[in-house]
Amino acid sequence: MKKHSNLSRLLSYAGGHKILTWLSWILSASSALLALVPFWYIWRIIHDILDVAPDFSRADQVASYGWSAVLFAVLSILIYIAALMCSHLSAFRIASNIRKALMSHIASLPLGVIEKFGSGKLRRIVNTSSAAAETYLAHRLPDKAGAIATPVGLLFLLLAFDWRLGLFSLIPVLLGFLIMMKMTGPDMEAKMKEYQNALSDMSNEAVEYVRGIPVVKTFGQSVYSFKRFKASIDNYEKWVIAYTKTLRLPMMFYTTAINAVFAFLIVGGILLTRNGISNSFLLNLIFYIIITPVIGTTLTKIMFMSEDSMIVTDALSRIDSILDEKPLAESSVRTLPSSHSITLEHITFSYEGEKDALCDLSLSIPSGQVTALVGPSGGGKTTLAGIAARFFDPQKGRVMIGGVDIRRIPKEDLMNQVSFVFQNSRLIKASILENVRMAKPEASRQDVFQALEAAQCMDIIEKLPDGIDTVIGTDGIYLSGGEQQRIAIARAILKNAPILILDEATAFADPDNEVRVQKALSTLSKGKTVLMIAHRLSSIKEADCIYVMQDGKIVEGGTHTELLQKGGLFAHMWQDYSEAAKWKIEKEAKA
Length: 591
Known about the structure:
The protein is an alpha/beta fold. 63% of the residues lie in helices and 10% in strands.
């Protein structure tokens, strides 16, 4: 398959703005060539002055040459501004379309893929990689067109007046170019990738650290308690210092070379004037001394363009790392389940590079039954719930709802069948009304009120300044974990899906909130097929069936009473739980 260039990849996002990118290059190249014209007028001014010296009053064309030089300089600037306007309009559209494409694709990916990347890394790829593409298109490509046109014009000027001085001027240019090629070769490309990796790791760990600040403050810890974050900072520091030291000598020689044009011109002047100096040679020498600094500026631009080209290559690679992730396959034939039962047949699933999280697991949840999953941490409970909701597909086995393989149920239909309440339910920065209405956009205010009331949320609404129109996250208005859970339950009640998945829904609730959350969940669960994960074993005593999971397998199953009678893992867990609850009650009584 033919590999497309970075430029063609970027321009594929331009739509109708692609012509603006091409126009920006033409205008930038024209601007660069026009910027050289004032140097010719400067040569004319010097020529006229030397020609009439010492009677300078006879140089009557100097003023007109000067104004002509200014005119072309201003014209060059205006055309360059027009080039940048064109390139920026196109670059903004391309960056915007890249972000849209990424976010649209991310929304279609299974939850397991999102967790694999991490929110910090995803945010950095979406924002930083698209910004790198924008900078490359808006600035570097127009400058590249100008940097290509400038040497062409310079070469003509350098060789047109005195080819011998021109060749002397080109020697340091050649040296600087060779050093620059050494610095910006394959090694630099590999180093640039390492640099972006170090930044990405540090960004990801920073997000996780910020999320864990409450824990850090509660236990009086510092950044050192987050070893991965500290290690990512140390790794970035070591890399940057080592890389800077590696480039120190090449950069010193490069800077010396491009600024040594005057030295070569002086040597050339001495060698070429051993038999005397003429006015015309002096004129050309002065002209070359004036124009040669443009060479250094052009070479430096080219060097930074090479670096930016590597940055955009790496950015596209990271964009591809997201776009190459495949969404879950959907059947072209729309099949709807006839009931709301859940069946898992011989499910095996493992996260990338890890042992099996679920191993040949099978279970059946009849329609309208409340089923609970318990067991030690890492046993696969959350993974099983995610598989049942098709957050990701198993490597082996199949999941069925109402006897239909969920891979044959369209995503929208499947999501209409299932509601979720997670242990860390999040609210967006919007009003309570908008947060709840996310479950059913066409719902009326009265519908939202009824859902909030059923979810035991009226005490929350009453204390907020604008009731259900209060925007969460502004003006210091925030909700506790238990209050957020109740709002999330109201959202699920409004959706009224026949299948309900609860993942530690009372995990962050204080005792008062837990009572309210349990009442809300009781209302929500009526008549539904419920799959719930719980660590608080008292919350699942009335479940129709309890499955005990360990190491990705179901080791026990039955009602609360049946499992206690078996005296297995659940009985030991219940005993430990009861003793912990008794110790807590005794401690509170003594207090």
